[in-house]
Amino acid sequence: MSSPQDLTDTPDTCIQDQDDLAYNVFAKACPSRGTLEHVTGRWGGLTIGALHEGSLRFNELRRRVDGVSEKMLSQTLHALERDGLVHREAQPTNPPRVDYELTPLGREVAERLLALIHCVEGAMDDVLASRAHYDETRGTL
User: Fold this and answer.
1) Which of 11, 38, 39, 41 is nearest to 25 (CA)?
2) Quick one: how many helices (H) and strands (E) in the chain?
3) Which single residue of 2, 38, 90, 139 could bond 6 by disulfide (Cβ 3.0 to 4.6 Å)?
4) What are the CA-CA distances from residue 81 to residues 39, 74, 88, 99, 122 (Å)?
5) 41-98 pLDDT, tens per residue?
């Protein structure tokens, strides 16, 4: 297995030797980069985190992810569905009912993402103190 440095030695390629990872998110053309952006982007991470609690309808999800516009949530859900992280279930009712839930892969990603979210939330006192110190020493607000 190669070191992390070896994976970034070829930044323009995505496929590595068989002993290496098949994909390299640090490579410009690697498709894993797009998926990482969908997962870690502002609305993607929040959407995945909200869906970890269970299946939600569009408007329920929009209320849960406070501040997201209908357009951005729709685009986010399409990207996550395309990546295989979210499943969209349309019910043949009148009016139509559409539910969104995480796929098994989406649940795995959500669990790792929620661990990061909880880490950040738990460190916010330190983060806010650091921000205040930074702003104070640099004369910014």
Assistant:
1) 11
2) 7, 3
3) 2
4) 11, 10, 7, 12, 30
5) 999 999 999 999 999 999 999 999 999 999 999 999 999 999 999 999 998 888 889 9
Measured in whole angstroms, the distance separating CA 25 from the mean position of its chain's CA atoms is: 14
6 pLDDT above the threshold of 50: no
In degrees and rounded to multiples of 5, residue 39 shows phi and psi of -75, -40
CB–CB of 45/86 below 8 Å?
A: no
Encoding tokens for residue 102? 């995480």
Q: Provide the terminal-to-terminal Cα distance of the chain, rounded to the nearest Å.
A: 47
For every residue of 22-60, DSSP letters joined together read: S--TTSTT-HHHHHHHHHHSHHHHHHHHHHTT--EEHHH
Angle between helices 31-40 and 70-82 (to 10 degrees): 140
Q: Are 39 and 45 in contact (CB under 8 A)?
A: yes
Residue identified by tokens 């991470």 is 45
| Contact call for residues 38 and 54 (beta carbons, < 8 A) | no
